[in-house]
Write a structure and sequence with these properties.
about 200 residues, mainly alpha
Length: about 200
């Protein structure tokens, strides 16, 4: 069995639908043959190594999920059982969150944060950071040497700030640019969870 998948919805579906169970079966079969390990060929060893990676990814993803997300992963996505007590829209929102976390686990070296950033979500975080510091729109705009209306547009999510503006905001709020982006990702997950629990 070759465990090959791409960073896509179809790759995620294949990973859930086939690879988890296939990886478990392969590892179980190997553990049964362990006393006769000399019967194991190099091709089988490569498959076994990949199966263990898949199971490690599954464990990492499981740890990153909330209780309800874990239930949807195990029951609905992996075992293909119908979940009666969750409405369809809510279920699809949960699957979207699981998919985003799956990308972070399975493709850790890729620049996934920027692909998840939306102007509205970044704007909400920028406004929250400013109000937490007790700064006015005018005060921050003056430090950045931009118009107040430009800063308001960033905070309303009408525009994405240029990198030099984002860097300036990070200095004003005493955070790194990466921290601002991570706060935006956390905001997305937190607000998705609020939607889920309502």
């Amino acid at each position: 069995m070759r465990f090959m998948f791409r960073k896509s919805r179809s790759g995620f579906d294949k990973w859930c639908r086939y690879y988890i169970e296939d990886a478990r079966d392969l590892v179980r079969a190997h553990d049964t043959l362990l006393p006769n390990a000399h019967l194991y060929h190099q091709n089988d060893k490569d498959g076994l190594d990949r199966a263990r990676i898949i199971l490690n990814q599954y464990e990492g993803l499981s740890l990153a999920l909330t209780k309800i997300e874990k239930r949807v992963l195990d029951e609905y996505l992996i075992n293909r059982k119908t979940i009666q007590d969750i409405n369809k829209n809510y279920l699809h929102q949960i699957i979207d969150v699981i998919y985003d976390k799956w990308i972070l686990i399975c493709f850790p070296d890729e620049d996934v944060y920027l692909k998840n950033i939306k102007a509205k979500k970044l704007g909400a975080v920028l406004k929250k950071l400013r109000t937490e510091k007790g700064y006015t729109v005018g005060g921050v705009a003056d430090q950045l040497r931009i118009n107040e209306s430009t800063l308001r547009n960033y905070e309303l999510g009408n525009r994405l700030p240029r990198i030099d503006i984002l860097y300036g905001l990070s200095q004003i709020y005493k955070l790194s640019v990466d921290d601002i982006i991570k706060n935006t990702i956390k905001w997305i997950y937190a607000n998705n969870f609020i939607i889920f629990s309502s």
